[in-house]
Amino acid sequence: MSASAVFILDVKGKPLISRNYKGDVAMSKIEHFMPLLVQREEEGALAPLLSHGQVHFLWIKHSNLYCIHPTWCPWRWVWGLSAMVAAQAKRGWAEDRSCTAHLCGLGWGQGQVEMRVVARDRVEVRGLYSIYFAINGTFSLTLLPLVVATTSKNANASLVYSFLYKTIEVFCEYFKELEEESIRDNFVIVYELLDELMDFGFPQTTDSKILQEYITQQSNKLETGKSRVPPTVTNAVSWRSEGIKYKKNEVFIDVIESVNLLVNANGSVLLSEIVGTIKLKVFLSGMPELRLGLNDRVLFELTGRSKNKSVELEDVKFHQCVRLSRFDNDRTISFIPPDGDFELMSYRLSTQVKPLIWIESVIEKFSHSRVEIMVKAKGQFKKQSVANGVEISVPVPSDADSPRFKTSVGSAKYVPEKNVVIWSIKSFPGGKEYLMRAHFGLPSVEKEEVEGRPPIGVKFEIPYFTVSGIQVRYMKIIEKSGYQALPWVRYITQSGDYQLRTS
User: Fold this and answer.
1) 393 shares a domain with 334
2) Of 177, 249, 401, 406, which has the most beta carbons under 10 Å away?
3) In terms of DSSP bridges, do strands 472-478 and 433-441 run parallel, antiparallel, or are they unpaired?
4) Helices in 44-79 by DSSP H: which ranges?
5) MHD domain: from which residue to which, for each copy (predicted)?
C-alpha cells in the first residue's frame, strides 16, 4: 500500500490538516471532494470512494471531521478497458454488452466470471455485487463495499482504510476526543504524528504507545549528547518498554460479548451472531510472558476436532504481541503484553442465539383518536444472572401526543424527536416478566400515508455471564524475577444491534 496524501476536513469541507507524501496529487484537488459528497448524498448514491477526473477519494467520517486519502489514476487506462481486462474481448465494451473475462491478479481471487458494463464507470459481475473499477498499469477491480483505490503501485483499498482508521485511533489516544477543536488546538502534534505514521506514502509506526515515547504533549528538558532512537523502535518487542516496575503486579481480563439479533414479526430469528473481545489491563513489572488458556469447549477454525457441544470461533484476530507460530502448533495463546490497556483478541460466532430478552408488543387504535401500546418483556437467561441498565425503545406514531404510561417495574419516557418510548429497567433478573402500557392521543384527521413500523430496540448488560460459554481456564505469568501476580477475570454480555420487528 502507498498513499499520495492525507487530508482532514471540517464539516464544511475546509482543510484543517493536509500532508502530501508523494506529490502526485495536486493539493487543490481536495476542493472537489465536498461538492461531490453533497451531490452523491442528494442522489442517494453515496459510496466510500468518490471520484473526480483522475483523482479518487477514499474517505471516512469521525465526529465532525472527514479524513481523506486521495489517489490518482490515469483515465487512458479506463477508456482502454477492453484491452486490459481480457485479451479475448477485442471489441470495445458498450453498455449492456456482456462477455466472459478471465480475471487474474485480483485480491479476491482468480478465474472466469461473467461481466456486463452497465455504465461508463460501473461493471456488474454475475452472482456477486456491482463494482466500481479503475485501471492502472495492469488493472485493479475491487468489490463493494471494499472500494477500489489505484496508484502507480496498485494500492490495496482495504489497507488504505485500515490505515485511516488506525490514524483516527492514534489521534483519539492523544486527544481523548477527536473533533475540529482538538485538531486546531494540537495541529503541531498532528503534523508530527502524520510524519511518523507514514513516510513517502508507506505506513511506518502506528502503535500509539511507541509514538508517545517521542511525541509528547508535555515539555521535555533537552539533554545534550543523549539523543537516541527510543529503544522500542528497534527492540524485538517494540510494543513494550524495558524497566517497567510496579509495587503490585496485577492483570485484569475482560471477556466482553455483544449479541447481534434480528427477529421478525412472527418471532423467527432472522439473524443472530456473537461478537466477542478479550481485553487486558496489564500492570506487570519487567518483561513477563503470559499464557492464556480457554476452556475446552472453545474451538478455533480448522482444528479438525469434533464440533459436538463446542464453540467454534470465527474471524479470530490477535494483537501483534501474540506468538502466532506457537498458536498454530498447539493453540496456546502466548505473548509478552504491552503495558496498560489493549485488546488481546477478537472473534465472532455465527450461531443460533436464543433471545436473552424477549419482547412481545400489541398496538391497538381506538376510533382514530387514541392508541394503546402494550409491551411485555421477559428475561430468557439464567435466574442467577441479572441484566443491568435495560432500555427498551418502542416506536410510536409520529403524530402521537398526550402520553400516559403504566409500568410494572422501571420508568417510561416519551422522546418525541425520535418518536419512541424508552422503557428503562435498572435491574432485570433472569426468568422475570414485566409489562408496560402506553396511551397516546391521535389527531382527528388521520394521515393518508401509512407509516412503516420501525423495530423495537433493546439495550442491556449482563455481568458474570457469556452467552457463548467461553471461559478463561488459566492465566500463567512467567517472569525471570519470579514475582507473584494476581489475574482478575470479568465476564460481560451486552447488546449489540439487537432488534425485534413488530407487526
Assistant:
1) no
2) 249
3) unpaired
4) 75-79
5) 248-501
The answer for residues whose C-beta is within 8 angstroms of residue 475's C-beta and 6 or more apart is: 251, 253, 290, 291, 292, 293, 487, 489
**Which structural domain range is residue 43 located in?**
5-73+156-203
C-alpha cell at 14: 475546509
Same domain, 450 and 345: no
- Which H or E run contains 33? helix 33-43
User: For the chain, how many structural domains are there in total?
Assistant: 4
d(CA 97, CA 453): 41
Q: How many residues does the chain have?
A: 503
In terms of Cβ atoms closer than 10 Å to its own Cβ (0-12, 13-18, 19+), residue 222 is: exposed
The whole-number pLDDT of residue 444 equals 65
Q: How far is CA 74 from the centre of its chain?
A: 32
In the numeric block, which cell numbers belong to residue 414? 416519551
Question: How far is it, in rounded angstroms, from Cα 27 to Cα 6?
Answer: 10
Give the Cα separation of 3 and 18 in Å (integer): 13
Considering the domain architecture, whether residues 273 and 416 belong to the same structural domain is answered as no
* Grid cell in block for residue 82: 477492453
Phi/psi zone of residue 340: left (φ > 0), alpha (ψ -120 to 50 degrees), beta? left
Q: What is the DSSP letter of 222?
A: -
Q: What's the N-to-C CA distance of the chain in angstroms?
A: 49
Tell me the angle at which helices 157-175 and 187-197 cross, rounded to the nearest 10 degrees. 140
Q: 150-157: long-range contacts at Cβ-Cβ below 8 A with a sequence spacing of 24 or more?
A: 150/56, 150/71, 150/73, 151/2, 151/3, 151/4, 151/24, 151/71, 151/72, 151/73, 151/201, 152/24, 153/2, 155/1, 155/2, 155/3, 155/71, 156/1, 156/107, 157/49, 157/58
Helices (H) and strands (E) in the chain, counts: 9, 29
Q: What pTM was estimated for this model as a whole?
A: 0.65
How far is residue 40's CA from residue 151's CA, in Å, rounded to a whole number?
23
Are residues 29 and 80 part of one domain? no
pLDDT at 493: 96
Inter-residue contact 117 to 89 (CB < 8 Å): no
pLDDT value at position 421? 94
pLDDT < 70 positions in the chain:
1-2, 54, 69, 71-156, 217-236, 296-311, 444-451
Hey, how many other C-beta atoms are within 10 angstroms of the C-beta on 117? 20
Asked if residue 118 and residue 86 are part of one domain, the reply reads yes
Residue 187, Ramachandran bin (φ over 0: left; ψ between -120 and 50: alpha; else beta) = alpha
Angstrom distances, CA of residue 210 to CA of 201, 205, 220, 317, 336: 20, 8, 17, 21, 15
